[in-house]
């Protein structure tokens, strides 16, 4: 990957002036000069290959997977270790340049846009698994040791996913973080090398940085809880005649105490898109994807209880995915839901809402949301981690159709407010980023916003860390 | 309870001057005058019965269950609702009087001592269960709706207990907090009435206040996760010939993925004390108290796996506690360990250490600790939530024996540093309070302490909230 950056960099010498002058025209000549003056120092820290002014590279790093418009940084740096991150941050601090941490760019609320320009810290070269302690059920990793989203990016957005109903979100699974603060100092939120399963030692900085979306510091290591691979795993798919029946089943399965590992809802629009995108052939009706983890006997019991419940709600017989290959195919289809939705209207863009409500409110909010989609003449695919009360509506729209964009915006605001009215949140896992700053104010109220702002001011007094995100 | 306070108050008018003059001699005439000047306003808020200057009342509120010496507040107030807490806090803020929140005084690190005098807010009159949502698995309560420790006090110290290995600590189970800040303003950390099971909405204030030990605000409501009552519960006791065998069994049970609900270790000194205090007759050797939750079939499987493991480590046959009464007796004995230890040397005081290490380090640290006890000529009872790597050494000592006190202090410091050297923490659940402020510095390092101090300064700029705790 670095050789690509390097090639980009070599091409860039003549282009740089154009780009910087564009920054100048955007109204901040001081910052442009500061960036210009600091480039050689950046290169001395992370090498020529580790600094890129290439337009393509900058644009890749100025956007995530959302519809928020690209806001490229002035420069992208590719540090290889925490010492380089710290040295680069010290330079940015000295020159008062904004710092935007970047994992893989898979965010959904515009969290990586360089709204005030500055220096994007791409952490993709920090990809090592550093300390694996299977006997203690923990591991310490650099930001991006594999998979899709980066792990430190997931920590930064308090992310979760299909397994959260059983194993918790990043909030419950991050034990310690190494963080580079805006002034370049390096802290370990729970103390260096600490990894007890419980602690009551001082303020919980770990969970303050989890979900801080890069606005308090750059996460350069995370210590995570591990879980044993279950003796047996089995997945199943169950179709229902109505949303209400599928969601009622979910609530009842949890109320029955079944330690279900995953329980994902897809409405008929979503399952249709997944069938087409992933060559599946499930009935086009409200659907649950389920997964059970445990010993053979415990699995049998979990499955029996769950089947009793789904059948009492008129659900279909389970379609099984027992072997690893079939299971993986099923979950890949679920994880590709975003791309499946996009594929339904080629050339379009998608926006994924993200709300979370108390379990018992789920049937009501999903039914209302589907009615709203029809009234708003929008294509929306509903998919969600319903075991947590968390769901998304993936809306596919023509970015050149201003009216449709406007309807999507209004619909999303209504959906978020519907969740707020039901004691819920405007974001269960995607974070606030740029897109939900006003909704956050509505959700927590001005006094909590003031406390959040005071914490931001305390840790990042010059507002250098990912400015303009979370707080207005 | 209030009539007692009222009686104390009536007796107190002549005594008050003496008490306040004692404050004066302690070097703060300004504060004494401020307290004097604000009393009638306090009474107008929470009634004559809600304000106490009684020496006995003040002394009851100046200490917890630890060996830290009593530091009585200047006055104790008994607000009945959040509005009264807020109004009282506003007065304290205006007069720059320290505020010390008080739940039930069952802390173990001196967290309630009024080291700078001030106003103790006893929250015992706030005892309501406000919103119970069994269908959503959550409840909102006032500070002290029952049980032993108060629930908001548990939130304030990031407490946990015997069930944490399966159900998590307060960190994982608090969903929202109502907090009165030092200036009297009232916030809801996740927004008013919010109770989604997941959220990524802004900074995680909830987990900043969990474990803040009253130094950031007064917790007046907490929203907690609930769990279904298991279909079946069964407890068992298993004896071992060595500490190593008992702790090895614990680690192996967890590694085998048994979803054990409780797994508590008691060394032979502790089980002996419990036998005597609670009229039990277990073998006087290292012991595990176990509890399994689940369906009948799942229980059978959990028990079989666990028995295989304990027997392979030379453990005894299980002694069962199947019916509710026997189980309750067993766990009452465990929870009375503190009093059992104290009863071994009447007239003595106890200190409970509290460390937590990665699971695999447990056998080593417990064995070393027992050797250290012998070398230090101390009576120590080891008991712990070993499934979390967390254990306590309850030391009983003669408070008039300065040499013994000194040996306890040195031993406790060595134990904490031993935990730190093993990647652990100096406190898994008791908190920092007064007693572990220096150890906290060693644990997290000066840069983290600076961040913690900056958060404290941001939220409580006048250092009115429980001053002198957590941070030096």
UniProtKB/TrEMBL annotation, chains A, B:
InterPro entries: FAD-bd_oxidored_4_C, FAD-bd_PCMH, FAD-bd_PCMH-like_sf, FAD-bd_PCMH_sub2, FAD-linked_Oxase-like_C, Oxid_FAD_bind_N, Vanillyl_alc_oxidase_C-sub2. Its EC number is 1.1.2.4. One of its GO terms (biological process) is lactate catabolic process. GO terms for cellular component: mitochondrion. It is found in: Mitochondrion. Pfam families: FAD-oxidase_C (PF02913), FAD_binding_4 (PF01565). Residues 68-229 form the FAD-binding PCMH-type domain. Its main location: mitochondrion. Gene3D superfamilies: 3.30.465.10, 3.30.70.2740, Vanillyl-alcohol Oxidase, Chain A, domain 4. Its cofactor is FAD. The keyword Mitochondrion applies. GO terms for molecular function: D-lactate dehydrogenase (cytochrome) activity; D-lactate dehydrogenase (NAD+) activity; FAD binding. Keywords: FAD, Flavoprotein, Mitochondrion, Oxidoreductase, Transit peptide. Belongs to the FAD-binding oxidoreductase/transferase type 4 family. This is D-lactate dehydrogenase (cytochrome). It comes from Amphiprion ocellaris (Clown anemonefish). The gene is LDHD.
């Amino acid at each position: 990957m670095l050789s690509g950056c390097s090639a980009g960099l070599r091409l860039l010498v003549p282009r740089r002036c154009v780009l910087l002058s564009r920054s100048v025209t955007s109204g901040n000549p001081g910052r442009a000069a500061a960036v210009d003056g600091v480039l050689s120092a950046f290169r001395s820290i992370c090498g020529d290959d580790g600094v890129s002014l290439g337009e393509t590279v900058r644009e890749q790093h100025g956007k995530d997977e959302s519809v928020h418009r690209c806001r490229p940084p002035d420069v992208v740096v590719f540090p290889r270790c925490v010492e380089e991150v710290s040295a680069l941050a010290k330079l940015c601090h000295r020159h008062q340049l904004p710092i935007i941490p970047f994992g893989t760019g898979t965010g959904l609320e515009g969290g990586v846009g360089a709204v005030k320009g500055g220096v994007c810290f791409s952490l993709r070269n920090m990809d090592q698994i550093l300390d694996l302690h299977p006997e203690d059920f923990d591991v310490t990793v650099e930001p991006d040791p594999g998979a899709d989203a980066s792990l430190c990016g997931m920590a930064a957005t308090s992310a979760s996913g299909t397994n959260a109903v059983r194993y918790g979100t990043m909030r419950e699974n991050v034990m310690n973080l190494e963080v580079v603060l805006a002034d370049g100092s390096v802290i370990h939120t729970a103390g260096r090398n600490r990894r007890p399963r419980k602690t009551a030692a001082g303020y919980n900085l770990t969970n303050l940085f989890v979900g801080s979306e890069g606005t308090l510091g750059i996460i350069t290591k995370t210590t995570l809880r591990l879980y044993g691979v279950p003796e047996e795993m089995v997945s199943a798919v169950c179709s229902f005649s109505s949303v209400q029946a599928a969601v009622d089943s979910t609530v009842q399965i949890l109320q029955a105490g079944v330690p279900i590992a995953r329980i994902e809802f897809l409405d008929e629009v979503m399952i249709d898109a997944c069938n087409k995108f992933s060559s599946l052939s499930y009935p086009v009706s409200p659907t649950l994807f389920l997964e059970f983890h445990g010993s053979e006997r415990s699995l049998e019991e979990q499955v029996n209880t769950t089947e009793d419940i789904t059948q009492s709600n008129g659900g279909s017989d389970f379609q099984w995915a027992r072997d690893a290959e079939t299971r993986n195919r099923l979950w890949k289809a679920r994880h590709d839901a975003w791309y499946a939705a996009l594929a339904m209207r080629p050339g379009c863009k998608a926006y994924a809402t993200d709300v979370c409500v108390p379990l018992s409110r789920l049937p009501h909010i999903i039914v209302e949301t589907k009615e709203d989609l029809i009234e708003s003449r929008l294509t929306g695919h509903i998919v969600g981690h319903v075991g947590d009360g968390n769901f998304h509506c993936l809306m596919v729209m023509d970015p050149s159709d201003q009216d449709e964009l406007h309807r999507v915006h209004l619909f999303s605001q209504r959906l978020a407010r519907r969740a707020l009215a039901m004691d819920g949140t405007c974001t269960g896992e995607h974070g606030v980023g740029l897109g939900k700053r006003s909704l956050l104010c509505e959700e927590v109220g001005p006094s909590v916003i003031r406390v959040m702002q005071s914490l931001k001011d305390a840790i990042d007094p010059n507002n250098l860390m990912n400015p303009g995100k979370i707080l207005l």
